[in-house]
Amino acid sequence: MRAKWQLRTLVCFLTVSACFARAESRTVNVAVPTLSMVVIAFTAAKEKGYYQDEGLDVNLVVMRDTLGISALIGGNADFASMSGAGFTAILGGVPLRFAFSSFFRPMFWLYAKPEIHDIKALRGKRVGVTGLGSGPDNLLRETLKRNGLEGGRDVTILALGLPATLAAALRAGAVDAGTISPPFNFAVRDAGFRELVSFLKEDFVELQGSILAHERILQSDPGLVEKFVRGTMKGLRYARENKAGTIPILLRYMKLKDDLAGQYYDLVRPIMTSDGTVNAEFQKKYLDQALKVLSPKEFPTVERIYNYSLARKINAELDASGWKPGR
Predict the structure, then answer these.
(1) Which of 68, 160, 171, 286 could disulfide-link 63, Cβ–Cβ 3.0 to 4.6 Å?
(2) How far apart are CA 104 and CA 74, in angstroms?
(3) pLDDT in tens, the chain (327 residues)
(4) Which residues lie closer than 8 Å to 281 by C-beta, 6 or more apart?
(5) 3-class SS at 173?
(6) d(CA 137, CA 139)
(7) How does DSSP classify residue 307?
(8) Residue 75 region, left (φ>0) first, then alpha (ψ -120 to 50), else beta?
(9) β-pair partners for 109
């Protein structure tokens, strides 16, 4: 009887302790454009308990690019991961900073109707993007320019919202081409649409899977920022080093077949950052690309856009402690 009483007492104690732990967790809302491989550092951190270890209860809220940045600016999101729209806001004078980046190349393709054979054939056509001022929109305009076309004049560019909506619009014939991200690139490819550009293979920089933070939170709550970056860093390390464990996470968050999840991982693993940061050359190149398209009134310095110092500090600490992601 005494043993049973002790067991019940232990169970009650553990239950109460768990309740207190949950009560003490801080809720963090993060605006993300998708739950695909783009944000695998975030989803891996949730699934493996890395955020929980930091005392954080992280909500990943899928939003359109521009809406997510508006939520960040207005304080309705603590962090956001819409890099292109965030960059547009920064060039408009909003004090946002890149604190972490998972990928350094664009993770999308330009697909078109089968009868459209090249970029020049898009003259007079309609091309869909997720949002005006987004990363895909900016790179589409630069690609058109390189082929003698001007987006908005020679080619109609339509903002269609979420990636799933954009892919559906292409398949339904509402647009003639679109900037398609995984896993929808597999579906439109198999439906017979033509790949015009693989931006993974182009000489563009796109900082995807990034943590964008407002200067407001960087100044007022650096402890929260550090906890969130640390959890995300561990998620990135897990995803980079453990394909077998990452595939089930992808499958939980996406409607994807097992074999396609493996293809997807292999496709984008080479463009993952090793430590959540990018070097000064890539930072400047990303800025220069945006300046070509957006032509802002003021030209911000690189220091006003990126702040990877915390990510570097956390990496050094993880290395010094010998931390390794589990299975």
Answers:
(1) 68
(2) 27
(3) 444 444 344 334 434 344 444 457 899 999 999 898 999 999 999 999 999 999 999 999 999 889 999 999 999 999 999 998 999 899 889 999 999 999 999 888 999 999 999 999 999 999 999 888 777 888 899 899 999 999 999 999 999 988 889 999 999 999 999 999 888 888 899 999 999 999 888 888 989 999 999 999 999 999 999 999 999 999 999 999 999 999 999 999 987 778 888 989 998 999 999 999 999 999 999 998 888 777 777 778 888 899 999 999 999 999 999 999 987
(4) none
(5) coil
(6) 6
(7) -
(8) left
(9) 180, 198
The residue with tokens 């783009």 is 38
Peptide bond into 95 cis (omega under 30): no
Cα end-to-end span (Å), the chain: 40
Tokens of 42: 């975030």
Cβ within 8 Å of residue 9, ≥6 positions away = none
- As a dihedral over the C-alpha atoms of residue 277, residue 201, residue 156, residue 118, rounded to 10 degrees, the angle is 180
How far is 146 from 214, CA to CA, in rounded Å? Answer: 34
Q: Which amino acid is at 292?
A: K
Q: Contact at 8 Å (CB) between 242 and 52?
A: no
Q: Say what the pTM is.
A: 0.81
Beta-sheet strand order (sheet of 194-198): 156-159, 126-129, 177-180, 109-112, 194-198
* Cross-strand bridge partners of residue 158: 128
- As a whole number of angstroms, the distance between CA 136 and CA 157 comes to 11
